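Lecture notes, unit on binding sites. The following record was shown on slide 14. It pairs a sequence with pyridoxal-5'-phosphate.
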Amino acid sequence: MTMILPHIKQIKPYVSGIQPPTGNDVIKLNLNEHPYAPSPNVLNVFRTIKEESLRRYPNSQCDELRRALARKYDVKKEQTFCGNGSSEIISLLFTVFLDRGHRIAIPDPSFALYYSMAAVHQVECLKIPVRYNFTIDTDALITAEAKAIVLVNPNAPTGLLLPPQEVERIAKHFSGLVIVDEAYIDFAEADSSIVPLIKKYKNLVVVRTFSKAYSLCGVRVGYCFADEALISALEKGKNLYNVNFISQQLALAALLDEKHLKTTTDAVKRTRDDFIKNIRKLGFNVIQSQTNFVLCSPPAHLGKDRARKLYNQLLERNIYVRYFEDKLLYDKLRISIGTEEEMKILYDYLKKLMESATFNNS
Ligand SMILES: *Cc1c(COP(=O)(O)O)cnc(C)c1O
């Protein structure tokens, strides 16, 4: 297949978590999906969609949704942009702002999609290792020789939040593009977002998504905030009708139900904090998460291969979590936060496994 470019051939495909067949006995905690339904307004709008709007091209600029985002975040509509999931926006950022041979600085570990996008665009990744306690070395990022810095905040898969003052320090002292991915920010403590700073720093892009906190993974809408000049560059690079009509309407309905967002994220945060407390009692080492997932390491006495073994044990019980083959993560599992009931079932099973001789000796 000589028509495939050599640098594309070399790329290892981005591997996403398994999407198992849904059934009553499956507990799916592997893709950081929301355990609760989106706002009931979303389904109401879905049911009223007219045949004509399926026949017509959608609004190519997502005007209505962007106006609503601008209102909510007190920015101008021209400082907002919508994409087919934030994945599309991430890809577009590379298309528009980064060229072959450019370099980005990004903490390691972080969201793997950035590494694969860089490879597709022949952009070099300068991976800045996190410290032993998983905190991010802000100064190493700022002083990196790079065109852009990528910061997922709170970070994935660690779940740790970099305080907004530190993020601002990056935007202030780094002269290139600063991409801050706030996919999980609604699960973090209050006032952690740096969206308001896009008015002050012309090099800052804040990427968000409806997938996680709004429970709309399947609808595929992401958005971002930045200075007007950066946004108009994104508009030039995007697909003409990048967000379909149905998705624009459903995202808008979700956005307007602020009460639902608060109730459901509060529930997830409560369940998360309880789960962390509980598995710490079982001897797990857990990072204090500010997201809807936890990164944890089973007790060390279970051996080097403990995370993979536990992953397989859980699979046998139809409990799906995430295991990464990676030198920094091989002894850890990433567990998305499900409903209170699901986390109780998981906890009870983990407790039983920790007490059972077969797991300890195998
Ligand atoms: C899930 C996730 C995304 C992708 O979101 P989509 O909007 O569904 O494409 C982006 N960034 C991070 C860090 C994520 O975890």
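Take-home: Residues 85-87, 111, 152, 156, 181, 183, 209, 211-212, 217, 222 surround pyridoxal-5'-phosphate (CB under 6 Å).
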